[in-house]
User: Fold this.
Amino acid sequence: MAQMVDSGAVRAAVEAQVEAFAEGGDGAGVRSVLVKTLGGPQLTVAHDPDRVLPAASLAKMILGVALFEAGRRGDLDMDARVRVGDLPGTMYPSILQALDAASAITVRELCGFSLVTSDNPAAEYIRGLLGQERVDATIKDLQLTSTAFPAGFSERELGPLGRANTTTAEDTLRLVEHIERTPHLEPLRRYLVNYLRNDRIPSRLDDDLPVRHKTGSLRGVVNDAGIVLHPMTPVALVFLTDGQSDNVRTAQEIGEVSERIVRIIAEAAAH
Assistant:
């Protein structure tokens, strides 16, 4: 006879992990968390999920959705080629520096670079191609009611100006779930599962456990959001923070609490 899962105990265990993380960081800054299973046992646990916080590079997922919607409607040519030398420059590392300036890549591939490597020049080009009106329309269509995306990813916008891009854990989860369930966004799912910055949610998980996610970082901001594709049950996790005194330590804490939460849920789903 199968053992019955004590859903109350599972919820309490996950809530304890969420609250411990939310209250951590030596009391510095704020932390918002949202956990949702996308299979059994059905569970949603949150801490301050409607708090508006800096989105940082999480906003690049909005650009991806807006671009593929425009491509689907025929408003933009996803196969148009862009010369690498014509892209914005950056003082930060860029995967595009591995290519010759005369090389040409498609708009679709630029979107891939912006989500697989979080490349800022690629994201800034995509944002300029879309225009603010399309970006705002996508935010409205997805009902991201507490999200604002007025700034881009140029050099001058990567400091204090970048904090103008804001969101909530609730809106971010809605965005992640939209990408997950929308058939024509399969390329975005492929980009995000191959994301290369894995020092947060995936860092303590088994290497063969895929995670479809995107991080965002500014001074004091350590974000990560996505779906752990566990074979027992997929788990959506959203972490938004601000005012963190040690970005590296907060990233480690996100990895630690993610592993514990996923383990608790997976063990419950196995019964």
Remarks:
- The two ends are 10 Å apart (CA to CA).
- The domain at 7-269 is CATH 3.40.710.10 (Beta-lactamase).
